[in-house]
Amino acid sequence: MIHDACGYTNVENNTNSSEGNEEPNIHATKFYKLLKDAQTELYPGCTKVSKLSFIVKLLHLNCLNHWSNKSMDELLIFFKEVLPDGSFVTTFFYEAKKVLCDLGLGYTKIDACQNDCILYWRDYANAQLCPKCGRSRWKSQEHKGKKVAHKVLQHFPIKPRLQRLYMAKETSKKMRWHKEENIDDGVMRHPSNSIEWKSFNERHPTFSDKIKKCPIRFSKRRIPTLWKYEYQS
Ligand SMILES: [Zn+2]
Predict the structure, then answer these.
(1) Reduced to 3 states, what is the DSSP secondary structure of residue 164?
(2) If you measure from the C-alpha of residue 141 to the centroid of ligand 1, how many angstroms do you get, rounded to a whole number?
(3) Domain of life here (predicted)?
């Protein structure tokens, strides 16, 4: 899993290259750390879960059940108390979430107008007031000496996610399916057999000819899973 997620399929070659006085780059460093965590027992004598698999499972449960950050912090404190000394359970949930970034599944935060007029990025990245409605970007009260935005957009960049899909052997094959294995014999088996899809390919030949450019279809239901608003407390 780690090899696929990080795009390294030959650890020995990478290990050898790092022996030649060459410092591993930031991606390789993250990869070796994940690999080490995947091989580290959660606590001395634990054979069922590793340090990494414990965090991944915990994040999965958190996502499925919509547990709050506060409940996760308290759960981790409880795990820390009941597990034997020397365990690698993190004390705070935000530390566990950093693993998501190393796996390429993190997200970026973009401040937004309280009335949804604009996002504070590009031309408005340094604006203090909304140019359309005039509302302040910030709350009146600061948190630990830092300004707090009224509203924050959590943006899940699609590019690194697509790159991850092409890095893994199994998913890469499926990503190339539309070009390599899609059968067009007049029978409607897949949306790509539809007239609309073919029309898109005809209008954008430079896109459709590239095997690594996969068509993406968005639906209104799916869009909220790509980004969501977060109100600062
Ligand atoms: Zn506004």
Answers:
(1) helix
(2) 19
(3) Eukaryota
pLDDT at 15: 44
Structure-token pair, residue 203: 């209008």
List residues, by chain if needed, whose CB lies under 5 Å from ion ligand 1. Answer: 113, 115, 117, 130, 132-133
Which run of H or E residues covers position 231? strand 227-231
Q: Is residue 231 part of a domain?
A: no
User: How far is ligand 1, taken at its centre, from the CA of residue 121, in Å?
Assistant: 14
Domain co-membership, 81 together with 27: yes
What's the 163 CA to ligand 1 centre distance in angstroms? 35
Structural domain span for residue 139: 108-152
Structure tokens at 11: 């650890």
82 within a domain of the structure (yes/no): yes
Q: Is residue 232 part of a domain?
A: no
Does any domain span residue 187?
Answer: no
- The reply to whether 78 and 168 lie within a common domain is no
Dihedral of CA atoms 143, 146, 152, 153 in degrees, nearest 10, equals -130
Residue 31, burial from CB neighbour count under 10 angstroms (0-12, 13-18, 19+): buried
Which of 214, 223, 207, 220 shows the shortest CA–CA distance to 192? Answer: 214
pLDDT tens per residue across span 40-79: 999 999 989 998 899 989 988 988 998 998 999 999 999 9
- Rounded Cα distance between 180 and 176, Å, is 6
